[in-house]
C-alpha cells in the first residue's frame, strides 16, 4: 500500500528526530504555558460574564481564570460578595453600567467587594458556587448570593448541568475543596448516576486531561486576549477578535416595556408560572413535611461550607403577569413563595424573598428585573448581606451609599 | 467525531506507548487487537458490536470454507443487514410510503422499525466483508487466522470513516507494522494527525458559518450565495479528508500504511479525474464490485451510461438514507456519463473537448462548479438544494 510518490509529510518524516523532539518539546512547552496562563487574571474591566466572554460565544472561562479574578477582588479587610445563580442575578434586562450589583456595591460600601459571577441558565450552586467555596476554604471572607427560586432539578447534580465543564475543570486541577457529601458522590455516586451518559462522562475526562495539560487555560487565554479561533454567530462577522474586546450586548432600558409586557405574552407566561407552581417546589410547600423536603433539597447541592455563607434569594415573577392571575391563584402563588422562604430558613439557610412590593416597571420581562427593579433588589439584600457578614466575620455593619 | 473525544485521548495515551514498547510481535498483535475491541465496544456499544460480530463470524467461516455458495449467501446476508439497519425505515416511510401511505404510517409507528439503530460504521464493515467474500469466491486466498480476520475487521483507525480496506493490501501492511514501527512512521503519523486536526478545526468553523448562512441564504447578495456554496464544498473536503488524515496518521503510528483517500480532488480538470481523486478507496470499491459487476463499459454507450448512473445512485445512497443522497449520486452519474461521451456523441463536443484540452483552467472551473453544486444535494433536502441552485443564477436569468 505504498504511496506512488513520497508526499511532503513523508519527506519531512525521513528525519524523524527533529519532528518527534519538536512535538515533545512543543507539547511540554504548551503544558508549561498553560500552567502560566492558569495564574493569570485575564479579564479587563470585568463587570460580569456577558455573552461575549461566555460559552454563548464559545468562550469558556476556566476555573483558574475565574478564581484568579475572584482572588484579585478579595482585598484585605473586606468581605467578598460573590453573586452566583442565573440570569436574574446576572442582570439580564440591565445594562452593564446599571447592573444591580453596581448598586449593591454602592450600598455596601468599602468594606465589601461585590463580584458578579452569575451565569445565564446556571443552577443555584453552579459555576460561582465552587469558586466561592475555594475562597472560603482559603480563609477569604465570603458571602455567596444565589437565586434559588428558579429551583433545583432532579436532573441537576453536584457538577451542575449547564456548566459542567467548569466544575470538572476545577476538579481536575484540584481546586474544588473537600466536602464529605460531594466527595462521596465523586467516589461512587457519579459513576452510578451517569453510567450511560457519555456526554457527562466526557466532561469529567475533560477535567482529568486538562488537569494534566492545562490546555484550556492556554487556549482560552489566547482567545480572550489575542485571537479567537472559533466561528460563532454571536461574534459575527469579526469572530477572530479577542473576546475581551467584545462589548456587553445587554440593551437594558432600550427594549421598550411593551415588547415584553403585552397581552399576547400573558397566556404563555402564565403557563410558565403555573407549570412551576404545579411541577416545582411550590406544590410541596403547604405541608410541614413538604417544606422540610424543599429545604433539604435546596441545601443538598450547597456544600456544608457554602450553606453557612449563602444568601438564597427568591424572587416573585413580574407584577404585570401576577396581576393577570385570578385573585385566589395569585394569593396562593404569593403564599407559596413566603412559605418557600420560610422552608429555607427552617432548613438553616439564609433566605430572602424579593419582588413583593415591586411594580410592573421593575421587571424587564416576567423573570428579570429592569434597572430600577435591580436597584430595589440591591436595596433589599444589602442589609441581609451586612448582617451575614457581621454574623460570619464580625464585620461592623457600617453604611455605604444611601 | 470519535478522535476528538477525551476518551480517545486517554485511549491513545495508554495504547501507543504500550504498543511501541512491547518487543514481541505476537504480544504486540494481541495488544493491537485488544485495543481495537475496546475502541469498537466503547463507541459502538453492545447493540453496535453484536451484529458486526455475528456478520464477521460467518463471513470468516464462509471464507475459510472457500465455498462460492457460502460466500454468496454471506454477501447477501451482509447486504441485507446493511439494508435493514440503514435503509429499512427510509424504504418504508419514503419509498414505499410514497405510493402506499399505510407503509409510511407503519414505518413511523412500528416499534421494531423505530427502534433500529444502525451499528457504528456498518456501511464500512459491510463493504469490507463483501469485498473479502467476493475476492475469496473469485479465487483469492482467504484469511485462515481468525486474529488476522479480526484485525482486518475492526482495525480501529479505519473503523469509522475508512478508508475502505482491501485485505490483500492490509495484511502485509499490518505485518510490516507489527514487525517494526519505525521512528519515521511515528513522525509521519504525527504530522498527518496534526494536519487532519487542523483541517477539522477549519471544517468545524465552516460548519457553524454554513448553518448560520443557510438561514439567511435567500436574502443574501448573489456573490455571498456563491461564497456559501464554496464554503460547503470546502467544509466537506476538509471534514472528510481531515478525518481520513487522522485515520491514516494513527494507523501509521502503528506502522501500518492505509490506502490514501484523497488526492487534491478540487484541482481535477474533469469529473472523471475527480472521481479518481475523491474518496478513492470507495471509488475503487464501487468500480470493482458494482460498476464492473453490472457490465462496466463493455456493452455500448447506453448501457455504460445506465451502469454509471446505477453505480452512482448506489454510491449516493451509501452515504446516507435519503433522496438527497440519491440525487447527489445521480448528479455525479450524469456528470460522468456526459464527461465520458460528449466528444463522441455530440457534434460540437469534439470542438469543446479541443478547447478544454488547450485551456485546462476551463475544465477545472467547470468541474469544480459542477461538484460544488452537487454538494447542495449532499447537504440539503432535494427541494431546498434545487431552490438554492436556482438562486445562484443572476436575477435576470431566473
Helix content of chain B: over 70%
Fraction of residues in H or I helices of chain A:
40-55%
Ends of chain A: how far apart?
A: 81 Å
Assign the structural class of chain B, choosing from mainly alpha, mainly beta, alpha/beta, alpha+beta, or little secondary structure: mainly alpha
Output the strand order for the largest sheet of chain A: 2-1-3-4-5
Whole-number mean pLDDT of chain A: 90
- Strand pairing plus helix content of chain A: what structural class? alpha/beta
Keywords:
A: 402 residues; alpha/beta; 5-stranded parallel β-sheet; B: 398 residues; mainly alpha; 0% strand
What does this structure look like?
The complex is a heterodimer of chains A (402) and B (398). Chain A has helices at residues 8-13, 16-37, 63-73, 87-90, 100-108, 128-137, 164-172, 180-193, 198-213, 215-225, 257-260, 263-279, 288-300, 304-309, 319-322, 327-346, 371-393; strands spanning 79-83, 112-116, 142-147, 310-315, 350-354. Chain A is α/β, with parallel strands linked by helices and 402 residues long. In chain A, strands 2-1-3-4-5 form a five-stranded parallel beta sheet, with helices on both faces. In chain A, helix 5 crosses helix 17 (371-393) and helix 13 (288-300) crosses helix 16. Chain A starts with 7 loop residues before the first helix and ends in a 9-residue tail after the last helix. The mean pLDDT of chain A is 90. With 398 residues, chain B is mostly helical. The model of chain B has no long low-confidence stretch (mean pLDDT 92). Chain B has helices at 6-21, 25-65, 68-99, 101-109, 111-114, 122-137, 146-154, 167-179, 183-214, 222-253, 271-277, 280-291, 300-319, 323-345, 349-358, 360-379, 382-390. The longest helix of chain B has 41 residues, at 25-65. Chain A binds chain B through residues 1-3, 9-10, 12-14, 16-17, 19-20, 23, 201-202, 205-206, 208-209, 229-233, 236, and chain B through 5-7, 9-10, 169-170, 172-173, 182-188, 190-192, 195, 201, 204-206, 208-209, 212, 257-260.
